[in-house]
Amino acid sequence: MCVSQWSTLCSSVVLLCLLCSSASSQSERTGFIGDEVLLPCVYSEKLSEPVSAFWRDKDDKVVLDIIDSREDKIDPKFKGRVVSFPDQYKTGNLSILIKDLRADDAGPYDCNIPKVDYHTKITLNVTEKPAVKITTPHPEPPTTRGAAVTTSKHHLSLLSAPLFVLFSSLK
Ligand SMILES: *[C@@H]1O[C@H](CO)[C@@H](O)[C@H](O)[C@H]1NC(C)=O
Ligand SMILES: *[C@@H]1O[C@H](CO)[C@@H](O)[C@H](O)[C@H]1NC(C)=O
Question: Could you tell me if 112 and 118 are in contact, meaning their C-beta atoms sit under 8 angstroms apart?
Answer without folding.
Answer: yes
